[in-house]
Amino acid sequence: MVSVPNEGGVERSLLSWLNAVGWETHGQDGSRGANVLDETYNRQSNEVIYWNLLREQVIHINEEISDDNADRFLNSLRRELDYENLLEGNQNFHELLTKGKSFGVENANGGTDTVYVDLVDFDLDDFLESNRFHAVNQFSVSRETTIRPDVTLFVNGIPLVTMELKSVAQDNDYYDAISDLHDYEEDVPRLFIPGLFNVAADTMEFRYGSVGAPEEFYELWNEAPEQYADEDNQMKQAVQALCNPATLIDVLKNFVFFEKRAGGDAKIIPRYTQYYAVNRILDRVREGVHDRGLIWHTQGSGKSFTMLYAAENLLSRSEVARNPQVFIIVDTDKLNSQMRDQLANLSLGQWTEAESIDHLEKLIQEGSSQLVLTTIQKFQDVEPDTQGNDEVIVMSDEAHRFMEADLGSRLKAALPDCSHFGFTGTPVREGEKKKDRNTFDEFSPEGEEYLHRYSVKQGIEDGLILPVYFTLRHEMEWKVSEDAIDEEFEHEFRGMTPEEKREFITDNVTSRTMAELEPRVDRAVEEIDEHYSDKVAPNGWKGMIVTPSRRSAAMYGKRLRERRGEDAVEVLYTSTNDDPDLIQEFHTDPEERDSIVERFKERDEDPSLLVVHNMLLTGFDAPILKTMYLDRNLKDHNLLQAIARTNRPADGKQNGEIVDFQGVFENIDDALDYDAETREYAARDEEELFEDLVDQLGVVMDIFDGIPKDDSQEATNAAVSRISTHPERRKFKQGFRRLQNLYESVAPDGRLISEGIQDRYKWLSRIQVAFERTTSGKEAPEDDMREKTREILNENVDVGEIRDDFPTYKLGEEYLEDAEKLDNPGVKASQVAHATREHLHPRENQNPRYKRLSERVTDIVERWQGGNIGDPEAVEALKSVEAEVLEVEREAEDEGMEAAEFAIYTHLTEETPDAIESEEQAKEVAEEIVSQFQERVDRGYNGWKTNKKTISEIEHILLDVLVVEYDLGHLIRDSDDFVDSVRNYLIQNNG
């Protein structure tokens, strides 16, 4: 029999991969692996740590901990899980994991010594032997609600990685897994207090994100050492490369930052590019063979954090360098300020900023082991040979600019014995002579081009940056009166010889002169205004005009303000009192420019257009920037940096865009003197975007082959029915998401109408609304669509009719009747399944019957989506479950019991019938437990449900009632989960 791929299959595969790299795994046979550890270490279901396992390990790892004081230590550690704020608790516990927990132990004199107790042994020589690494599936935690992540990784009994897995064959993907993880963090934050990171995966994709990370920060791990490389199975490669014990322990110990942010603090863990680049640097310093290297990472890949991770590791790891002084060098005050602010907001220790040339010289002479942040300009008057530390490591940001003037030479003279690593996204290779600038020659040992590289292509494939498309707008019709020009020229310059005239024209009539001609600027402004209004503004994005001179920038600014308003357009360049009035009109001081830039980055604030000259083409990250209007002739690394301004991802942004008024992209081989891959992926012709849209529209429309593409109820029902089960469900969810982004990037375009694309897209939009209505129960799914799609729906889709066809039902008697009105069994099954799950999920811990019914719903849906039962059978099976759900509530009323009473009674009579004398006794016991609970447990404060006093008091109540009053102590002794279950019934039904 062929089985349908499902989450269980993904679990088993993943556990086998972990087993192969050193994890002790349980659950590969399809059983619930967590049960093995639960039974071995006697874990209660509300606990997130295997305390008995951890007890063994802290005794093993720490000489100061023994059987006599281990319990006292663990009791003090339990309190470290009690945090209202998840990230605050996670940061605190991370410090305990990496630095140990302080603990008082009795000394030989009867006094107390304070020691630090390690929870994990980080000794590189024997960490595999001294720590315990467990990977189990279906680790269930019941507190206010029950969660059961698919796979959990424990080190010494502490959960460090929580994994949620989906099967694309069952319509879910890693987006759904991330959503589930967010729910788990909300429902049972205690599990994630010790966590390092989470994993969301499906059968095709692997993503990881730090605890508390939003969806957009769940990333790929697409590089691996040779022993884990597997080109045929990227998911296996990612699991083994990231989650092998050595890498996991390394990331835990050496690659975690906590950053203070205005909108809420964040935990930072490395991208794979950062992790492997840093380790290449550490290896080079450790080995001491070469004293330099080039880190070539594309713009937007996080070079700043790579440098900071490297600095932290160099300063903290004595096996790499004994007592080093580390420099991070930037070449502008703006970059210096950005890095200073970054350092101030991170949990990073030893660092200082060179405030002046004299201060820098003093820091170099002292040679203290710390991180020093400085600009290259401060080296200009530092005396040669002032290096006071024989272990100096220098990291230069924007390294392609460090060969300019004499500053690079001054740095070498001041620090003659340093190791120097260059970081750049746009290396320079100019000319073949020794004096020519060449980043590779400057920073790479002979025979090596770079120490580590992350290309534009990799960045796009990883979703870290977006593709950028260009459109040529450089060819304009010129109407020139040559005779009049000749006459005017002869009149004005009649005193010059013909040779002097030719020389004057050659020197002064340049491309810049042409760019400043009023008729040309007028035509370009008209084009920019129209393009921005039609293609950029409707989706909420912003634009930048890059000009060749301050005069042309002022001309653009003046005209665009006349068209779009004063507040909508700002012009940025430097000016002085000696400049002409036109240029002084747009004068701004540095503080004003900073304010303008910050407002530009905000979606709902003006300006929406920036006109710039010699500004913001480096070190400027604004995801809101979609379109650059390029009227300046840029080449090579300057062009790459300009392109990178538009490629930063943002929610709903499909690509960046460059509208080229100079013809820079007419011959991209000349414009970008890099390898073919960089040229190909740096920027693409916008025609490719339209072709992508056509192809994607065909992919999504093919899902509905054979269904009429009209607005009839029958067609809509048939379409929704088709995408109610796999694999069509998954194909539609993923396919329409991409189609929506592409459509918004292309529109408006006359071909959308002439080629019938808009009509087909409108039909699919209607189906999307109906699909969302049926599967998610949203009151207005069209509200989630982006601006361009919403505009189409408002004009062309009868949303009211869709709402009538696909009502959102609440579970109840009337629902069973209304469900019959849905004619299509596929639609009906999808709606019934969603409503039943929504009703049962929050109630799973309120009554044992709810849990069993929830499991039945899951089984029915999996068999239905797997094709093992048809639509009508699924509907009938689900309706049967619904009827039983309603029966639970009715029966409680008939028996005159409140919810908690009835739950305990049901458990006693249905789960442990042999342990009681009669149903009457079960009623009495349930009534007495609830009565004492209401009398003895204080529920008048936030957090009472998880408070230790509550849990302890419930246990005392159970002892008093079951052991003392009814002689039913065997219920506690013989059933491991009885106390946990009753506790849940009491807490969940008394919220």
Automatic annotation (TrEMBL):
Protein name: type I site-specific deoxyribonuclease
PROSITE patterns: HELICASE_ATP_BIND_1, HELICASE_CTER
EC number: 3.1.21.3
One Gene Ontology molecular-function label: DNA binding
Organism of this sequence: Halorubrum halodurans
Domain called Helicase C-terminal: residue spans: 520-687
CDD domains, sorted: HsdR_N (cd22332), SF2_C_EcoR124I-like (cd18800)
Key words, A-Z: ATP-binding, Coiled coil, DNA-binding, Endonuclease, Helicase, Hydrolase, Nuclease, Nucleotide-binding, Restriction system
Coiled-coil region(s): 878-936
Family recorded in the similarity comment: Belongs to the HsdR family.
A Gene Ontology biological process term: DNA restriction-modification system
Family matches, as NCBIfam families: hsdR (TIGR00348)
Reaction it catalyzes: Endonucleolytic cleavage of DNA to give random double-stranded fragments with terminal 5'-phosphates, ATP is simultaneously hydrolyzed
PANTHER family noted in UniProt: TYPE I RESTRICTION ENZYME HINDI ENDONUCLEASE SUBUNIT, TYPE I SITE-SPECIFIC DEOXYRIBONUCLEASE PROTEIN SUBUNIT M AND R
Xref: SUPFAM superfamilies: P-loop containing nucleoside triphosphate hydrolases
Domain Helicase ATP-binding: residue ranges: 284-445
Keyword Lyase tagged: no
Superkingdom, natural source: Archaea
Alphabetical list of InterPro entries matching this protein: Helicase_ATP-bd (IPR014001), Helicase_C-like (IPR001650), HsdR_RecA-like_helicase_dom_2 (IPR055180), P-loop_NTPase (IPR027417), Restrct_endonuc_type1_HsdR_N (IPR007409), Restrct_endonuc_typeI_HsdR (IPR004473), SWI2_SNF2 (IPR040980), T1RH-like_C (IPR021810)
